[in-house]
Write a structure and sequence with these properties.
The chain is mostly helical and 179 residues long. Helix content is 62%, strand content 6%.
Length: 179
């Protein structure tokens, strides 16, 4: 049994969440901004946006590599988007650019639940496309550089140790073995 989804149905399924999200976004950001103050300085915006592009390329790569899995390939890409900051508060993009997600309640790197909370919006079909633009605008205009996902999860992206520091510490460790 084959199910054909009409173009109108597909557009409606993507367009309705996109429009709803775009209309609700400013009010939600304003409401959540009132009670959230971070002691951390705003991370370099160019680094942050570059890390986001790298993570986007990672999602596309994961989907292409796993395309033989059919619809499951979207689940692989979605899982990366959702859990990307769960290990040490860094996605691959953040690791390469020396950025870390900090949990504002604990002062430690973001956890699995923090990563899920801050990235859940990126999985909503239709709304995720609009979120790319709205979240970028919010990162640029917010004094602390926090997007809606950060405000929902009580997190903040900050400058931290990245791949360069990791390689350096491994080199130092290897050199200490020879002494």
């Amino acid at each position: 049994m084959r199910m054909d989804i009409g173009v109108t149905t597909l557009l409606g399924a993507l367009l309705l969440p996109a429009v709803t999200f775009a209309l609700a976004y400013p009010s939600i950001v304003t409401h959540l901004s009132r009670g959230l103050i971070s002691p951390y300085t705003k991370a370099d915006v160019r680094k942050r946006l570059t890390a986001a592009v790298l993570d986007g390329l990672m999602v596309v790569t994961l989907c292409l590599v796993s395309r033989s899995l059919g619809w499951l390939s979207l689940a692989v890409g979605g899982a990366y988007l959702l859990l990307r900051d769960a290990i040490g508060g860094q996605s691959i993009g953040k690791l390469l650019l020396g950025l870390v997600v900090i949990d504002l309640e604990t002062g430690r790197v973001s956890s699995l639940s923090g990563s899920m909370k801050r990235n859940l919006l990126l999985l909503l079909p239709g709304a995720n496309v609009v979120a790319i633009f709205l979240e970028t605008r919010t990162i640029l205009s917010d004094p602390q550089g926090q997007r809606l996902g950060d405000k929902l999860a009580q997190t903040h992206v900050v400058e931290g140790a990245g791949a360069r520091e990791l390689v350096k510490s491994i080199q130092e460790w290897l050199m200490s073995l020879g002494s």
